[in-house]
Amino acid sequence: MARSCCGALLAMCLSLLQCGVAGYCSLDKPGYTARVKYIREGFEKRLYVEEASGNLAEGSEICACKEGGELVCAFLEQVQSKPCNTDNIYYSHAAPFYLAHRGGCICYSGDFICAKEDFTKAFKRDEVPVAPPPLPGVYLFLGYSRKDFKILMEGRQEVSDRVPETEEEEELEVTSTVQQAVSHYTSNNNKTDCTISLKDQVGENYVLAATLDEFNDLRMKKNMSDTMKYQEKVECYEAVLNIADKINSRDVDMRSHVIMSMFKVAYAEVNVPPPPPTLPPDISSANTPIISFVYLLVFCLLLVFTRGR
């Protein structure tokens, strides 16, 4: 009886190994940088090949695991490596550059992409552009390439049935993806989970706010205390900063994530009041030198008095 049960269990295990893990597709592509072995059913991955030189091969591949464990892949063309030119400087493709109040920028296929939108467009040519004041709170600014986004979406339509069809669906997909990344970070770093919401989406830029739900009522009434605002920084800023750092460093996990791979530059920003004052300083410790001098003076007087007797 025991042997027959063991034999049946062994047969089931062998069947799983041959057909892949239930609910997943096996990805036998060891040459890819992401080192992905399985893709969860209903999900997609963007994959790159690393050449012997250490550089990534041109183009990428998007693979999706459909219902029933069917793996479908499509090749994504590489965007053209066009340079960016200014009046004084030439920037090669993927080269970083600096623009004030834009939160970091990069030249990408002939276009300058920054984490923050171009505020100068709101001014006339004869006007001096003035940067807007920082938004109050904790924010994640994201910049993406329309060219790469177009290639990515065309590839997703080939392999997946879950592709957003409207701008609202695209915004929801981005917001929920960043929310997952933030929740993963906070849960692994003993932080309170922060809610990610879309503040604005203009051109090639997303602005996402990170907040604590417990303060929502007071936030709506614009009655949050400075301590509450600082608490949101303590709980939320590290999470969005971690995402920005990974995007800017071209982290492998970010590049392989279908949604996050479209972002080329990011910037985390916090604008809250300074930390609340701590307990008042210990008066006794502040006056320690004076007290010590008094004790010494009393000791000397006693010594003189005793000798005099």
Could you give a quick summary of the protein structure above?
This protein has helices at residues 2-19, 146-159, 167-188, 216-220, 226-248, 252-256, 283-286, 288-308; strands at residues 24-26, 38-40, 44-47, 60-66, 70-76, 84-85, 90-91, 96-97, 105-108, 111-114, 137-144, 195-202, 205-211, 263-271. It has 309 residues and is an alpha+beta fold. The strands form 5 sheets. The protein has a 4-stranded antiparallel sheet. A 3-stranded antiparallel sheet has the order 3-4-5, covered by helices on one side. A 3-stranded antiparallel sheet has the order 8-9-10, with no helix packed on it.
Explained architecture:
By secondary structure, this protein is of the alpha+beta class. The chain starts with a helix and ends with a helix. The longest helix has 23 residues, at 226-248. Helix 3 crosses helix 5. 36% of the residues lie in helices and 23% in strands. The chain has 8 helices and 14 strands. 25% of the residues are buried.
